[in-house]
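This section describes the prediction task in plain terms. A model, or a person checking by hand, is given the sequence of a single protein chain and must write out its three-dimensional structure as a string of tokens. No templates, partner chains or ligands are provided. The sample shown here is typical of the held-out split.
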Amino acid sequence: MDDRKNYKKMAFMTIVLSMVGLASFGQGQVTVEDAIRITLEKNLQIKQASLNKDLAAQDVFQARSNLYPDLSLGVSQRFNNGLAFDQVSGTLITGNKWTTSTGASLSSNVTVFQGFQKINQIKANKLLLESASTQIEKIKYDLMLSVLVNYLEAITNNEMMIASRQQILLSREQVKTDSIQFQVGNKTLADLSQSKNQVATDELNLVNARNAYESSLLALKQLMELPPQTDLQLVKPKIEAFNHALGQYAAAEVFEKAKSFNPEVRKAQIDKQVAMKQIDIAKGGYYPTLSVGVSYGTNYSSEGRNLYTGGYLPFGDQLNQNKSFGSGITLSVPIFDNNRNRVNVSKARINLQLAETNEQLLETTLNKTVNQAVLDLSAAAQRYQSSMSAFNSATDAFQVIKERYDIGMANGIELFTAQTNRNKAEFDLIQAKYNMIFKDKIIDYYVGNPIKFDVN
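The expected answer:
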């Protein structure tokens, strides 16, 4: 009876530890909130998307600036030798003679009307800026899911590794017992060999579990942009906090919340609005364009002369006498442009249909995903309960076989089979537990709730 009590104590040790969260946080311990925060702070994709947002902001600034008049200053200096017509003095220059001319001008133009294209371009660029902001949220959204998956996978593999170590301890104790029994003639060589085979099997399970744990932990570190040698101790969630999982969520309510929050759906809605504005911009090509321009300038020539005296005019006098001011209004009416405007409008309408289709497709996919997630959560909760019962049953069955084996009423193969079944049931229980936790957290992920575990 003492052996049975000791075995039960060791057998349930792993399960008890897996259900109790860590009460304190030491150096190197990381919660899932910490992992998400570090990932979002360091991820290069987010930085890249932020820079794209900055580019979109500059496009908005440029579109607004296009409403203002432009202003340009021009200065020219020309040197000529030989035959030339001097436009400033209005004379023909002949012979081997150097002449110089200088000019300066200031001009400004503004488009008064262009079919509201500039106004609609500002609105479209604002929407594109909002779309760029939503793209950042989408990247963060996807990264949060990746962190959650890798975090729970690492914890699952860690518990599998702990369980494997515990199983090895139990198997080695059994080998010691069988060795003693074999020496006194109570056990056969086959029984002893079967016990040693169980140790080898458990050691292989430990190797596989350790490799899986190290791989999943490395993937998590890579997401967090941490060096591979960084020491991470993941904080396990408290299983009692998830007992409410079964039947808690209604798929319709989850979908409505998810649709209003999902960054990808939101981006598709904004892209549809952009496509509508692009139609307005394209239609603006059918309208006339009205623009106004003004200019002011003056010039100087080395051949400039006084009309009355025939003497050369000084530089300052020429700049004063040659100054000019001009203004003009230009109206451009499109009559036939080789169907460019027509094609642009048609393309813009097709792009709107594509945007609408993409929005509908995303909403349909999200609806299917959410409904499946709610069903998966219910199934995962039931699987966890079933796995718990199966583990308890397998443990009891193993105890019975072990007691019979100890008194010679069962052989080593029966003990090996019972222990293998118990070990498998323990692995299934660990996987079922964290699968249920993941399915519960994935609902929070869809509706925009913070991803965190109760570890107190």
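For orientation: The beta strands are 29-30, 70-81, 84-86, 91-93, 98-113, 233-234, 289-301, 324-332.
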